[in-house]
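Cross-posted from the bioinformatics board.
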Amino acid sequence: MGKWFPRIYDMVMLPLELNKFSKIRKALVGKATGRVLEIGSGSGINFRYYRDVSHVDAIEPNPVMNKRSIKQIGSSYIPIQTHLVGAEKLPFADNTFDSVVATLVFCTIPEPLKAIKEIQRVCKPGAKILVFEHVRMNQKLLGKAQDLLTPTWKKLCDGCHLNRNTLELLRQTKISIHKVECHFKGLFLTVECSKEVK
Ligand SMILES: C[S@@+](CC[C@H](N)C(=O)[O-])C[C@H]1O[C@@H](n2cnc3c(N)ncnc32)[C@H](O)[C@@H]1O
């Protein structure tokens, strides 16, 4: 893990947060209910947006980010516990959570399919899975540009893949996708899904 990236992340993101992301986060995170798992909670930017939930378990493997997120717990209305772990091996029992929140994180998870399968395992049947991600764009040239930029981008931005097709990864699993909303011409997506009810 890079050390400087977590330290400047919030500052770099501030213009986007003020312009658009805060509204997207508020709307998406506000849909979480019951016991919630947040994946890669970073500096805890989503904590203030939880409303109708009983408890949040926030996992984050980067100690610098995790430390920052603990400071944000005070800005929340509900109990939040952080865990210094990655999404590929979650320290929770099967069928634990009513909702999962993942924002700007599947781009960085080294093994995203493994993480999605773990998320499915710890979710109750029908649990909400609320995702906000940047993804590989459908436009040929822009997608190609993202492919070309990704090796350098990954080095600069702590493993972030500019060209990850998270929607396609979700489609490869047994998650039901209910709503996909595009932002910035499809560079960012919000995806509302749920764990299949057998
Ligand atoms: C771009 S930041 C996003 C942080 C926050 N979710 C947000 O919306 O601003 C990506 C986060 O994913 C975390 N991350 C990296 N590998 C991970 C993994 N295997 N499991 C969960 N989170 C991971 C990073 O430490 C970082 O905090």
